[in-house]
Amino acid sequence: MSLFEFIVRAIDLIGLACFAWIVARRLRPLVAAQVDRRWNRPWTRLGRVMQYWLLQWRHPRFRFAGAMHILIFAGFLILAGRAFAVIAMGVADQVHPEAGGGLLETIRDYATTVVFLCMLAAAFRRLVLRPARYPRSVDAIFLLGLIAGLMAADAIFEGSGAAFHARAGVAVKLAAGSLPWLSERALAGAPGAALRQWQMGGYLTHECVFFFLLCYRPFGIQLHVETGLFSIFFAKLERGTVKPVRWGVTEEKLDGAGRFGVQRIEDFTWKHILDFYSCADCGRCSQLCPANAAGRALSPRALTAKLREYTFRRYPVFGRARDGRELVGGVVTEEEIWGCTTCGSCEAECPLLVEYIDKIVDFRRGLIDRGKAPQSLHKPLRSLESRGNPFGKPEKKRGDWAQGAGLAGGSACPTVNGGGVDTLYFADSMTSYDDRAQAVGRAVARILARLGENCGILGAKERDSGHDVRRFGEETLYMALRDHNTAAIRETGARRIVTADPHALNALRHDYREVPPVEHIAEVLARAVRFGRVNFAAVNGGVYTYHDPCYLGRHNGVYEAPREVLDAIPGLRRVEMARARDRSFCCGGGGLALFHEAKEQERMGVQRVRMAADAGADTVITACPFCLVNIEDAIKVAGMEGRMRVMDLAELADVQMAGTETGGRHGDPGLRETSPGYGGERDPVQRSGDGYRSRRPGVLDQ
User: Fold this and answer.
1) Average pLDDT of 302-322?
2) Were both Cys, which of 139, 415, 508, 684 would link to 518 (CB 3.0–4.6 Å)?
3) Which helix (H) or strand (E) holds 622?
4) Is the pLDDT of residue 670 over 80?
């Protein structure tokens, strides 16, 4: 065995052994974490790997950075085989360049060049252009330098070898203009012995950099290179869902499940710790996060980075645990946890499918379990527990909103007493009790009646859907609300459920069990439009824009139905805001968020109203009572009263359908006198100093 062969094999053996040991140490927190069931539907998961990992599906959403990443990723795939081939050459003691000239060799040479240039461009962006979403990281620059050095070493090895063999009359054709080609041209005049030294030096440099990079990545932000594929494969398949308190623990046994939620790093599931490793620190999540844009304490990227570093310190590769701080209060703050609206913008943007909402919900479960709910949530949570709604209003008044919703041919959606109803309209608490949102409920009732639906409402039997109760961490209260509603719904014998509240839609569709299929009124209207069952009167002027509610759009994929309805109204001119569809900007007022005043620099709703104005719209159409109320309030705060207005899609459709019934052309569908404004109140309940403490199953009033 030659000295060179001995050195090469020693580098290979030490490099692989070190990498295996580091990986084993990095896997320790995943082994100590909670179980997570992620093995279902393997073919679907493989398809997502092809889409999001191999095809880099989400990267082009940021055009320049995405294109550059795709080039780097493609280059790495091409060069991976090359790297192992170079290692094999050294092990076999046959270090020489390939004949070259073929298509694969040409692609490989250009891939080396593209990756090298992309490293320079990426370093320039971080050091000079400094996009706001990129953290200032010496680690990132160092890694870019290592990858550029790896490409340069490979080019020197290839170019010097080609020049050496050319002297012996053996032609090695390299891709013209590539980095190896430039290396060959630069070294062509060197003596044969020098060329041989350049070749050996390039090879050993390639070996050392390759294995150093392989072993260094698990300590920095490029750990996602190794873990990203697994993060995508095991990613959640269904949007809108929330993980159970504990996988493998039935609801009946929750009372004996110990602590709820996340209070220690080991309370996370192994998939969520894998997410910490897989975050690429690209900052896309934080740049698109409405809470971050509003100046709240939350930054999804920073949250993940802090939890990753904490995990590294609690489970270090070398030595013992070095960080004894509490997770909440020491690593992350309560303001960060409660600042999230669970809008899902971060998850919709992440190219590696990192999950955030389940982690936030688990953090909240842990805080609720320890009696640390925000003071502003104490009263609505107690009201939900005792009266089934966060407003503290009497249950018997829950169906009063339907008064006055009748048509000339009879009443619309009466309260169901017993069975005999085909369509159940589930109003939920906001529509039932808020004066402004009640107009949406009456509009929906009239629409369903005009479409010939045999519909009814639960009235006093209905309770809050519990959607935001669950996402604010109160699992046992949510279960009580869900079970009550499920029993009431099943008693009606309804074949389907319709709602105008995306939060109720999401809860009934994803959280409830054994209830009829549920649709949003926008889906009902869109189907009626497609089958010619509805005619609209024309509008008279104005510019309209549609605001996608988070839980209708991102969480349930309903984007086109509301737009189909708007585009079916004659004379309606519609424009899109810069942030639309799955990039829609949260209004900031969904569910219990109306009761929790997070510290922020500027309301999300105000920013959204300005986006509508920038698009040239004077009317914002939405399909969520929470968005309606919050945006109407934001219009007042932004000083745009008289210049901007907001309507629910159901209100607009109701007015335009009424216009065709009377035979006239119902122009300019403004807010009616029966639909008073919200009044600008941000907290519809009186706050109390009494604390709220989570209760275990079985003690809630049902």
Assistant:
1) 92
2) 508
3) strand 619-622
4) no
pLDDT number for residue 94: 56
DSSP letters along 16-39, please?
HHHHHHHHHHHTHHHHHSB-----
What digits encode the pLDDT tens for the residues 257-269? 778 899 999 999 9
The more confident residue out of 693 and 296 is: 296
Report the C-alpha gap between 296 and 305 in whole angstroms.
17
Nearest CA among 119, 127, 115, 133 for reference residue 62: 133
Closest CA to 694 of 469, 392, 466: 469
Binned at pLDDT 50, 70 and 90, residue 527 comes out as very high
- Measured CA to CA, the distance from residue 504 to residue 501 in angstroms comes to 5
pLDDT at 686: 33
Tokens of 290: 């409405």
Q: How is residue 544 written in tokens?
A: 């309209």
What are the C-alpha distances in Å from 288 to residues 154, 440, 560, 622? 38, 30, 22, 20
pLDDT at 435: 94
Q: 240: how many CB neighbours lie within 10 A of its CB?
A: 20
Q: Would you call 428 helix, strand, or coil by DSSP?
A: helix
In contact, 551 and 624? CB cutoff 8 Å? yes
For residues 551 and 502, the answer to whether their CB atoms sit within 8 Å is yes
Place of tokens 């084993």: 24
Task: Compute the half-sphere exposure of residue 652: CA atoms within 13 Å on the CB side of its CA.
Answer: 30
